[in-house]
Amino acid sequence: MFGCLVAGRLVQTDAVQVASDKFVFNLPDYENVNHVVVFMLGTVPFPAGMGGAVYFSIPDSASGGPVWQLLGFITNDKPSAIFKISGLKAGEGGAHPFGASSSGSPSVAQVGVSVEAVEQLAQQTPVSSAAVSTVDSFLQFTQKMLDNFYNFASSFAVSQAQMAPNPAETFIPSSCILKWYENFQRRMAQNPTFWKN
């Protein structure tokens, strides 16, 4: 019914059914995982009005038991979701009906899917650090490119006393580039799509 995908690993479709409406995937070496995708296989849909709450459990070294954190949900209308797990912290979260289902190993985390009513799913609040950035990939590229450009140009900075007269060379004050870059960032924060106009 469900699949779990981590970059660089085989797709997992072998969820362990721990209750009639609860499924768990073991995630070994979770310390090296940034994102996890949970999806429906398309073989068995959710019953009408139902969906799946997706949880993540990091082994808690203090209590020895699992602590579950809500990541989000999937439904028949939204059959897959990607979650960022690299920012989640052990010990934060709470108990959940998955109970004491534990992988038994401190280096194995778990991803759980709990079948619940869609109305209930919509009222739950996932942990905020699990949300994947919704920033446009072109915008991310542009910001990183401009950071790189400013850092590169700044690496050639010399003081006015260090400048040697060279009539063939044009000098641009680094403060001018910094001012332009800060203005660009401010405009992006106010209207992230201004560059599309």
Walk me through this protein's architecture.
There is one protein chain. The protein is an alpha+beta fold and 197 residues long. The chain has three helices and eight strands. Strands 2-3-8-5-6 form a five-stranded antiparallel beta sheet. A hairpin with a 6-residue loop joins strand 5 and strand 6 (66-75). Helix 2 runs antiparallel to helix 3. The longest helix has 18 residues, at 137-154. The mean pLDDT is 82. Its main location: cytoplasm.
Any chance you could write out the topology, listing elements then pairs?
Blueprint: E1 2-5, E2 16-19, E3 22-28, E4 35-40, E5 50-59, E6 66-75, E7 80-84, E8 108-117, H1 118-123, H2 137-154, H3 174-190
Antiparallel strand pairs: 1-4, 2-3, 3-8, 4-7, 5-6, 5-8
Number of strands: 8
**Termini gap:** 44 Å
Using only CA atoms, what is the Rg?
24 Å
Shape: elongated
Put simply, the count of helices is: 3
As laid out across the biggest beta sheet, the strand order is 2-3-8-5-6
Indicate the percent of residues in helices.
10-25%
Query: Residue ranges: pLDDT <50 for 5 or more in a row?
Result: none
Largest sheet: 5 strands, antiparallel
Specify the structural class.
Answer: alpha+beta
The mean pLDDT is: 82
- Please write the string of helix (H) and strand (E) elements: EEEEEEEEHHH
Per DSSP, what share of the residues sits in E-state strands of 2 or more residues?
A: 25-35%
